[in-house]
Amino acid sequence: MQIEFDDIGPAKITQLYAPQIPLRAVVVIDNTARGPAIGGIRVSPEVDVEEVYRLARTMTFKSAVADLPHGGGKAGIIADPKDPNLEKIIRTFARMISGLTEYIPAPDLGCHEEAMAWVLDEIGRVAGLPEELGGLPLDKLGATGYGLAECAEIACRQAGLTLSGARVAIQGLGSVGKAAARFLAAKGALVVAVSDSQGGVHNRDGMNVDKLIAAKDAQGTVTSFDGGESITGDDLFQVDCDILIPAATPDVICERNAAAIRAKLILEGANIPATPQAERALAGRGVLIVPDFIANAGGLIMAAMEYAGKSAGEAFSVIDEKIRANTERILVKARREQLLPREAAERIARERVKKAMRYREYSYP
Ligand code: NAD
């Protein structure tokens, strides 16, 4: 995929290189007409400019649909998150982006709250800080998983499902996956399959979520949980379930596995977890998909609330209200106008961004 410059962005693509560290990174600021761009720093050996651009665009849409006074941006640091020099890498990265004042760094894969404290130290501009520094620790609080469970309740009605008793499969039992499992189980859903980078586990009768998370925390993988049978990461996509939640890496739902997916509802916990072709093929089979920038907006909303000086309680009620309303609105619009939910959501987001750009015709970079 090529980077497409369209009527909203991307405004800036900055490549960073510091051979003495070594540090290689990219920052994409997609659009800031609605305000400074809050976007995570992804640390991964595989991250590249295109992925960062696609994630930055997702953040533009996520902020706009959630009606936050923010734009969209993202950063990628090409490194192993377990690199013993990670602090030096992140601190150097932060210093090198000190002039990109329209970008507010936040946590993402491989770069959690502790790293935000280093960024704060260096440039004083950050969201997603640890509690001890006045932050709302969105992963510890489970902001995104909480939002996914609220989204599930509304989307189930549209998909002809009842959340209580619905069977859920989750790819990636990390911060998002664990919180989604907890909040969904609290609403009566059965978690029947989960996976992580080392494999998965399946039990058609549902698993004890607390014990599952305890096993993952103790041993570092869900494969250590003895309350189900072992499956591979690929098997997870073929499990008989009602709701599938990809909560790991990009493009995991693709032409290769879309036909085997048995879920009636997919909630995109990860960013860009499905290729556009796979999303279209699944929709053609009647599978309802709530796109990433609606379903997983809980983390961004909490980061924006932290930036605005709000409390965790205030943040949770805003997540609740916005995600439920947006899920309903987008799914109804999609049905009425014969659009994919992603297309319906994108139309609303683009319209809001373009309106902000018209107001800021002369100040916009
Ligand atoms: P995390 O690092 O805490 O967890 C990721 C999990 O995915 C880990 O358990 C890992 O083992 C697993 N994983 C990695 N590769 C896998 C594979 N091939 N198959 C199965 N599992 C695999 O990350 P996270 O914060 O939970 O984020 C997960 C996704 O959600 C990312 O795409 C992130 O951008 C997105 N997201 C996160 C938040 C947030 O609040 N943390 C908000 C919005 C979107």
Overall description:
This protein has 365 residues and is α/β, with parallel strands linked by helices. The chain is 41% helix and 18% strand. It is built from twelve helices and twelve strands. Strand 7 (190-196) and strand 8 form a beta hairpin. The mean pLDDT is 96.
Furnish the topology, listing elements before pairings.
Elements: E1 12-18, E2 23-31, E3 37-44, H1 49-65, E4 71-78, H2 86-96, E5 103-107, H3 113-123, H4 138-141, H5 143-159, E6 167-171, H6 175-186, E7 190-196, E8 199-202, H7 209-219, E9 229-231, E10 243-246, E11 265-267, H8 276-284, E12 288-290, H9 292-295, H10 298-307, H11 312-337, H12 341-359
Helix pairs in contact: 1-12, 2-3, 5-6, 5-10, 5-11, 10-11, 11-12
Bound molecules: nicotinamide-adenine-dinucleotide (NAD).
Nicotinamide-adenine-dinucleotide binds next to helix 4, helix 5, helix 6 and strand 7.
